[in-house]
C-alpha cells in the first residue's frame, strides 16, 4: 500500500505502544521533592487566596470538556511523511509533560493529606486535570496507531529531585507558559481554520484555562512564602528559572519547526510571542523579569539553536562514543557560554509595579 510507505515507522515496545523518546536535557522531566518540608510549609500569609482557588478547582469547569466527538472518527492516514512524524512527536511530548504534572501533583496530594489538607486537595484536583490532559493526548496518539505506556513511563523514567521552592518556581512557569502556548495555537487556528489539520486543537481554549488556574495556584503559593520572592537569592533564582524555561522551549520548538509549519505557524515567531507573554505574566509575582527585548537575547538563543543542530548531527553519526564526546565538547562549552551571558543580562525590576492594577 502506498499509504504505509509514506508512513514513518516508530520503534515499539509491543505492537502499537511507542518506545518513549530518549531522555535528554530538553525532554520533559519527572520531578520529586522533599515532602516533609512541603508538609511543614505555613501558607497562612495567603491562605484566603489559596482557598478561593481551591473553590475554583472544585467547580471543575472542564468536567465535560474532554470528550472525543465524531470529528476524530476518521482515518488520519493523510497526515503522512515528515508531518506525521513531527505530529506524533508533538503529541508524545505534550502527553509526557502533562503526565509528569499528574504524577507530581498526585504524589503531593497523597503525602500532604494528613498535615496540609488544603494544599493536598488543590494538588489532587490539579492531578485530576493533568490526568485528563494526558489521557486525551494519549487517545489522540491512538489515532496514529500508537500510544504511550504511562505505567511503564512511571517506572522507567528518572526523577529529578527539586527542593519545594524550586518546584514552585518551575511549575509556576511551566503552567503559565503552557497556558500561553495552548491559547496562542488556539487563537491562530481560530483565525486560520484551514490550518487546523486535526481536531485536538479545538479543545485548547478550555484546556488552557486549566493551566491558567494551576498557574494561579502556584502564584498564590509563592505569595504565601515571601522569602521566595523578596531577597537577592529569589531574584537570582527567578532569573535562572525564567531563562531555563524559555531557552528549553525555544531550542525544542525551533528543532521542530516543521510541526509548527504544518499548522501554519512560524516556530520562531510563535515562541517569541509566548516568551513575551509568559515573561509579562511572571512579572505579576516574580520581583524581576528578563529583558527579552534586548538585541542579544534572541541572537544568543539562535546561536544555541545552531549549536544544537551540530550536536544532533554528531549524536546521529556513527563515530565511537569517546570521539563523539570530544566532538561535542566545544559545542557544550559554547552553549554554556551563551547561557551564562543570557543569565547575566540585566533583568527588569518589576517589584514597584506589584499591587498596581493593570
Ligand atoms: Fe495540563
Ligand atoms: Fe497544568
TrEMBL record:
EC top class named in words:
oxidoreductase
Presence of the UniProt keyword Glycoprotein in the record = no
E.C. designation(s): 1.14.13.81
Give the metabolic or biological pathway. Answer: Porphyrin-containing compound metabolism; chlorophyll biosynthesis (light-independent)
Q: Which InterPro entries does the UniProt record give?
A: AcsF, Ferritin-like_SF, Rr_diiron-bd_dom
Q: Tell me, what is one Gene Ontology molecular-function annotation carried by this entry?
A: iron ion binding
Give me any GO biological process, just one. Answer: light-independent chlorophyll biosynthetic process
PANTHER family, per the entry: MAGNESIUM-PROTOPORPHYRIN IX MONOMETHYL ESTER [OXIDATIVE] CYCLASE, CHLOROPLASTIC
Q: What does this protein do?
A: Catalyzes the formation of the isocyclic ring in chlorophyll biosynthesis. Mediates the cyclase reaction, which results in the formation of divinylprotochlorophyllide (Pchlide) characteristic of all chlorophylls from magnesium-protoporphyrin IX 13-monomethyl ester (MgPMME).
What family does this chain come from, according to its entry? Belongs to the AcsF family.
What is this protein's name?
Answer: Magnesium-protoporphyrin IX monomethyl ester [oxidative] cyclase
Which organism is this entry from?
A: Limnospira maxima CS-328
